[in-house]
Here is the input.
Amino acid sequence: MGYRILETDDIPGYLRERGHWDDGTDIRVREVSDGNMNRVFLAPSADGTRSLAVKQALPWVRVAGPSWPMNPDRADAEARAYDQVAKVAPDKIPAIHGYDPENYALVMEDMSDLEVLRTRLNEGEPYGPHTSARIGEFVAQLSFATSDFGMESADRKALVAASVSPELCKITEDVVLSEPYIEHEHNHWHEGLDDLAAEFRADARLRTEVADLRHTFMTSAQALLHGDLHTGSVMVGEREGAHVVRVFDPEFSFVGPVGYDLGLYWANVLVSEERARALGTLSDHGSQLRLSWEAFEAEFRRLWPSRVDTFFDDAYLDRFLRRVWTESLGYAGTEIVRRIIGFAHLTDLTTLPDPVPASRRALLLGRELIVRRDELKNPNVVRALAQTP
Here is the structure.
């Protein structure tokens, strides 16, 4: 039949055609698309006994329409990432019921009983128990299993070849790691930040350090990444009395530097803390970077004895983890900067009564993380820096 863009009325028939709904129960569908890129539908049964979610990649950016074309094969990258994570951390992603490559559509678990972490934090709620630790474990489990430490050489090379994503990587190279530091039509910011935006564009040291991070992003094929790991791509909640954390939307997945995923999450953690500080709602924000790093490091070290290539010794592991730590800080800084003076801002700040003070603090912190990343030895040092007036 070929690629067809699914509409709300198409979903019941589509689910039955694909064998995901094998009885005559009525299906009530509603569109819940919220992100920039794709369409998402929830399909519960009329009697409320079951429900599925359908996510389809459009041939353009959803919020822009056909004027911004985008190859829908990003859905292939998302399906591939879910497949890899399911092998090592199935408890940290939604259950995937099937992928339709012809229509670039995923059928998965309905997670509407959970809450997007960013929404929870913006409403003044805490992270909840284990949230950041589970994120750290997720990054460690995915990155170790898809690195040269955890995967046979031939399989790794096949994964690298299959995971090449030039179009989506180019978006990151430009939007995150270039445009905020030059004059560009994508950039925008609150007028109260005019001076800092100009200073950042004129800051030679900052631009050089960002160039270094950009080059690492472009050339360091260490492991399969989520590629867009932030508080808006994490859902949390309670199921049967247990705290649940689910990571979703890995459509920017590619093989790159391990520190990139951690850095994106840390940037969101630090920005959320600035929001909470501005509103006087600080709770468990200050410990999240430390908790995620400690869990990542502990899990990576736990997996280390199972590495495929025994040439790498424990001394090398220490060096590798130190590099991941440093690069994560740098990428955290670039993500903070682009979310304030670049493209696609964060509601954490934009919904504040006066976003300027918190935005200024976050921007200055982002710069320090980029240019001083080699000096910041551990989470306690970063914590002290984040608390500096």
